[in-house]
Design goal:
It contains 16 helices and 22 strands. Helices cover about 40% and strands about 15% of the residues. Helix 12 packs across helix 13 and helix 14 packs parallel to helix 16. It folds into four domains: about 40 residues; about 170 residues, no CATH class; about 110 residues, no CATH class; about 140 residues. The strands form nine sheets. It has a four-stranded antiparallel β-sheet with strand order 17-20-21-22. It has a three-stranded antiparallel β-sheet with strand order 5-15-14, with no helix packed on it. It has a three-stranded antiparallel β-sheet with strand order 6-12-11. It is an alpha+beta fold. The longest helix is centred in the middle third of the chain and has 29 residues. The structure holds S-adenosylmethionine. The site of S-adenosylmethionine has 19 residues, from strand 4, helix 7 and strand 13. One of its GO terms (molecular function) is protein methyltransferase activity. Keywords: Metal-binding, Zinc, Zinc-finger. This is Protein msta.
Length: about 575
């Protein structure tokens, strides 16, 4: 809330800080004097109530890409609240993945842990406090560990535990949107939360706690009602951010949660682990004008409009109406486009089927060349069928041949940029050059050219839906790197044949190599914290060194955008 007294002298004040509007001054002089202290708190946004979106963050000044918007620590964080039926689960101390059957056990509560020295186990802000409650169950399991020690319930328990330990934080938490009105007793989500979280915590720990509290006369948790527990679970589902770096962490932030969704969002964020938890730092990703809403993306950028909107409706309870969703071509990418089955003069019409009104969930689809129309049901059926087939093939560790034939088959039905085709092509460019029988020296020039072309096409689509590289940096990083690799094999082959930089195409390919590596490193600059990001950066750095050596060894001058042979 804005102050009405001067932040410097405490006298009545009516001059608000124009950037954050959160502090006021009696005059310019005191505003100047206070700036040294205020600048680290001054935020370039204000919280505004919107009739459709609820509370939103609105820029109070123009921002350039890269400008800092906010850094803050979580109110609370813990293991991802997802059920895991087999395989690795997060350690309750640090959230790093462990295999429960092989893991050590916590001496306080017997939950599987990464190791008894894990600092998070004793930390009262992490496992330390909840451990005392989990330890009230005095039986231990040898089999069926996933069912017995349920990490997916711990974040909800940690939220509950804030109420007595950090009442202000608990109040802040309860202010968040939980959409309880859409999660009533007859809904699947209610039934799931009731059995998976509420009953599990009550039956195993909270009922025992109540008995203990009765005996000792000391209350550890005031409110463990099912209403509060359902509200907390709703708050987690709607507002929590997933931090998939070196651990499976989910966190609730005091301000960052207010960013609204936009499929073409204008901010980007990174997480950095420190003693105080995972700090989030949000920066402008695109130019932002004063008055613009600050947005992030709640769903997957590479899904088509119908899939994104359905996901947002089911998990965040709103219908997205952003520019990308409203555009049948999805910003000219045709990510949801289908090939028309219509004919003209006995030939396929060659048109593309697109939704007439993508914001209408039952929209008809129409061809942009002939008058064939499809119902939404027909489209959903086809797209789901193709999606299932893609999932099955992708999960089966496919060969190049299998992916190739899937792509050829699917291109009879979908636009070459369709998001299912994107996914198959993205896998293919990573298999050419790596799989047995398709190693670099085994690839024909034609296949290398095909790989490079696919990379360029996918880069083009990715740029349109993620112009600031905030959402798909790993996808783009891989594409630029694979483009470099394909070009480089072709260049070396031509080089060995004596075709050198006098040939224009080699010049262009060398320039594209240099550009691809630079772009990959630039796009990946914030990805050091994830294992996949780190691995890719090191590959790109290795390629950059190789490229430099090639350039030096062959005395190629690439400066000024042109190459010259010695
Ligand atoms: C993480 S919260 C954001 C803060 C929320 N606006 C509030 O008032 O607490 C997510 C919720 O905000 C609303 N919201 C976010 N982006 C929206 C959008 N683009 N259109 C409509 N509602 C949106 C939805 O109700 C969604 O479930």
């Amino acid at each position: 809330m804005p102050e009405t007294t001067c932040a410097e002298c405490g006298q009545p004040a009516d001059l608000k800080c124009s950037a954050c509007k959160l502090v006021a001054y009696c005059g310019k002089e005191h505003q100047k004097k206070h700036w040294k202290e205020h600048k680290s708190f001054c935020r370039p946004f204000e919280v505004v109530e919107n009739s459709q979106k609820g509370k939103c963050l609105v820029a109070t000044r123009d921002l350039q890409p890269g400008d800092l918007i906010l850094t803050e620590y979580p109110l609370i964080y813990g293991p991802r609240p997802h059920v895991v039926e087999e395989g690795p689960v997060p350690c309750p101390g640090c959230c790093r993945l462990i295999i429960p059957e092989e893991a050590a056990r916590c001496e306080g509560c017997d939950f599987p842990i990464c190791n008894p020295e894990c600092p998070g186990l004793k930390d009262m802000e992490l496992h330390g406090h909840e451990c005392k409650i989990l330890g009230l169950r005095d039986i231990r399991a040898i089999n069926g560990l996933h069912d017995f020690y349920r990490q997916d319930t711990l974040l909800a328990l940690r939220c509950l535990l804030l109420q007595n330990r950090h009442p202000k934080k608990f109040a802040q938490l309860l202010e968040m949107e939980s959409h309880q009105d859409k999660r009533g007793e007859d809904t699947e989500v209610y039934k799931d939360i009731q059995t998976r979280i509420v009953d599990y915590l009550h039956d195993n720990f909270l009922d025992a706690l109540r008995i203990l509290e009765g005996k000792s006369g000391q209350q550890v948790l005031n409110d463990v009602s099912k209403e509060t527990m359902h509200k907390i679970c709703g708050i987690i589902d709607v507002n929590a951010l997933e931090i998939n770096q070196d651990a499976e962490v989910t966190a609730l932030y005091p301000t960052a949660y207010l960013m609204e969704h936009d499929c073409l969002c204008n901010t980007t964020h990174i997480f950095e682990n420190s003693a105080k938890g995972y700090a989030i730092t949000i920066r402008a990703a695109l130019p932002v004008l004063k008055g613009d809403h600050l947005s992030t993306m709640y769903t997957h950028a590479l899904w088509g409009t119908q899939a994104r909107r359905e996901h947002l409706r089911e998990t965040k309870y709103f219908s997205c109406k952003c520019t990308r969703c409203a555009d049948p071509t999805e910003l000219g990418t045709y990510l949801s486009g289908l090939r028309c089955i219509g004919t003209q003069d006995d030939e396929p019409c060659g048109g593309i089927q697109l939704p007439i009104d993508p914001l209408d969930d039952n929209t008809e689809w129409a061809c942009n060349k002939c008058d064939v129309k499809l119902t939404n049901q027909e489209v959903c059926f086809l797209v789901n069928q193709i999606g299932e087939e893609v999932d099955n093939v992708q999960l089966s560790n496919p060969t190049v041949r299998e992916l190739d034939s899937l792509l050829i088959k699917m291109l009879n039905f979908v636009h070459p940029n369709h998001y299912h085709a994107y996914s198959v092509k993205h896998s293919l460019v990573q298999l050419y050059g790596y799989q047995q029988g398709y190693m670099p020296n085994q690839l024909s020039d034609d296949i290398l050219v095909r790989k490079a072309t696919m990379c360029r096409e996918l880069i083009d689509v990715t740029k349109k839906i993620d112009p600031a590289n905030g959402r798909l940096p790993l996808y783009s990083g891989v594409l630029f790197h694979e483009l470099y690799l394909a070009n480089m094999v072709l260049i070396k082959r031509k080089w060995d044949l004596g075709i050198k930089t006098k040939v224009k195409s080699i010049n262009l390919m060398l320039q594209e190599c240099q550009y691809s590596l630079k772009q990959a490193l630039k796009i990946l600059q914030n990805e050091y914290n994830s294992p996949a990001g780190k691995k890719l950066i090191s590959l790109v750095e290795g390629s950059s060194n190789e490229f430099e050596k090639f350039i030096t060894r062959n005395k190629i001058n690439l400066s000024g955008g042109s190459t010259t042979e010695k």
